[in-house]
Input
Amino acid sequence: MKLQPPPDAIPQTALYPMFRGERVIEFVEKEVPEPEAEQLLIRCQANALCASDFGQYYNGSNITPGHEAAGVVVAAGPDTRIIVGTSGVVFLMDFCGQCRHCHMGITNICLNKRADYGFSHDGGYGPYALINENVFFPTGDDISPAEATLLLDVMGTGGHANRRAQHAHPNISSVLVTGSGPIGLGVLAMAKLLLGEDMPVLITDMVPYRLKLAERLGGLPINVEASDLVDGLKHHGFDAVDVAIDTSGATVARRASMDVLARRGVQVCVGHGGELLLNVSPDLIGGERTVMGSEYFTYQELPESLKLLREHRDYLNQIITHRYPVQEIGEAYNKFVARSTGKVIVEQ
Ligand SMILES: [Zn+2]
Ligand SMILES: [Zn+2]
Output
């Protein structure tokens, strides 16, 4: 039997980063909350930076952000099952477990969602986060907190987008990913892990650093600043693709993807924002193409991601390119917004 070391004493107050807007982040003393029934207090150890934080980074927030958190349970309220000392990650969306969608396993589209940790309630950039137990996913101590964060937006969101495409296309032979930011790299990696390592995955961006990283992960890079998408595909020997997954949120990228989508092809929208301009007869009806959205991922996808992370650890760890202590979160953001990064992690 492995004995757990006693948990660190939990202080009454601690320093939490607060996003003041216009890229200003200050550390402020706040009370450390106590877990009530069905709640856990997490000592946050790592949180990955995400473009979804940019609203809070530029406009400010009343809570401490961070929605890609890994840490350890340091206190558990009444009626909980998870024991103090358990390591794991926090699923962003506090699903109710009772609604029609939760009963169907669609926990990412819960009809009575109670919280978005890191957006509506304190998230993982602070030293402690109070969560409802149902969103905690234990990982085991063999996975470090930094790599555990890969289970969330990188593998989770990336895997879900591929699974959405598989629902609509039973025989995928090529994938295009538009945008090589951290989510795009996650979609690429999960396409390789879920659809087969020989699956051709074409991937676009304008940032050379990100395209190099995509190539290291097995992608076929296309620099859409240097050539248009059609020529970029041709360069790799393709005229069309079965699946296009957009992580850029750019209207122009989605339209260009539509123009190279094979008949019966599927476009999956993951990146928020912008529009998708369609000519219904030629784009949808004529070729029986499908357009769908993909939102985060379901809690139920986490066990398979954990298994894949254990099996492909070195491959997936390449997506993490920068790490900072949380005290240097401002520096971490400066680096991340300059775009020559994969995933950037802050640790504490
Ligand atoms: Zn994120
Ligand atoms: Zn629900």
Remarks:
- The pocket of zinc ion (ligand 1) is lined by residues 50, 52, 67-68, 153 (CB under 6 Å).
- Residues 116 and 286 are 40 Å apart (CA to CA).
